[in-house]
Amino acid sequence: MKHKCRITVIRRPFFPEISILSYGKEIGPCDFYKDNQEFIVDEDNYRTMLDGKFCGEAWDCVKRYVYTALHGGTIIGMDSYIACCNDACRPVMFRIERIDEEE
Question: Which residue blocks in 1-103 are alpha helix, DSSP H?
Answer without folding.
Answer: 16-23, 56-70
